Amino acid sequence: MLHLPLEVREAVPAVLILHGFTGQRLEPHRLFVLFSRLLAAHGIASLRFDFRGSGESEGSFDEMTPSREVEDVNAAYQYLRSRPEIDGANLGLLGLSMGGMVAALSVAQPDLEFKALSLWAPAHPVVWLGPLPRETPSEHVWTMYKTRANTPEAPGLGYDPLTDRVDFSGNPVSQDFFTELLTLEPFQTVTRHRGPALVVHGTADPTVPLHIGETYAKALETRGETQFHTIPNGLHTFETLAAQREAHAVTLEFFKTHLLGGRDSAVSFRRSVLSDEF
Q: Residue 195: which of 263, 111, 259 has the closest Cα?
């Protein structure tokens, strides 16, 4: 879904928005929808899309790996740059949870240039792997997940022997996903981002611990302007109206500052539906 300001007399900046693991382009309690509308009302376009195998996109969820999601980011980026309404030299990137990790990987791609980066509760391989050493064979990780499946200690986690897939609450996950996780260093790749950055994290996040967001922020601080904003008692997707408002407000100001130069172009907005490739 592409959200555009109603009156586009010249090319406008845009934000590419990435959803999380097992998520989709709306995200819980319409978190992304409302933020896209807020951006558009202030003169900034945005593109929300479903990664392959998620939401209404083609493919199966078990095709999903971080590197394939980076490929999807590249396709969405090229789509944005092809639109005459969009200023292709003035793009921001926002990722939630695994979408934040994928954003951290994407900014290291030589063909992707984002002027501003925001990470909401960004995930890291340790969310899935725990303290396992990176040299752990992927087969060991796969066996660990299959062993934990269908036990009281791992609610929502199963294993489907018919397809040889780990079952995350009805979402099939392949061994390729875990194999890739063992190779990723998003705390390092995120430092390839050359513009300002904002990390937003709830202090009570039960899914991605606060220290992970803090580590992303510290990594980003080593290379330039970075804000780290915590939301007191905030959960993973900011599941209260107050937390959602706070995440939206601080991120809106960030993108207005760095994509609009601080101008506030308060306007109405319109929406257009993406082509089927998204």
A: 259
For the domain covering 2-124+185-272, report its CATH number.
Answer: 3.40.50.1820
Give the pLDDT band (50/70/90) at residue 6.
Answer: confident
pTM value > 0.90:
yes
Domain ranges of the chain: 2-124+185-272, 126-183
98, 20 contact by CB (below 8 A): yes
**Residue whose token pair is 């660990």:** 144
How far, rounded to the nearest angstrom, does the alpha carbon of residue 136 sit from its chain's CA centroid?
A: 26
Q: What is the mean pLDDT of residues 34-58?
A: 95
249 CB-near residues (< 8 Å, 6+ apart)? none
pLDDT of residue 135: 85
* DSSP notation for 82-122: H-TTEEEEEEEEEEETHHHHHHHHHTTSTT---SEEEEES-
3-state secondary structure of 177: helix
Contact criterion met (CB below 8 Å) for 141 and 135? no
Mean pLDDT score across all residues of the chain: 92
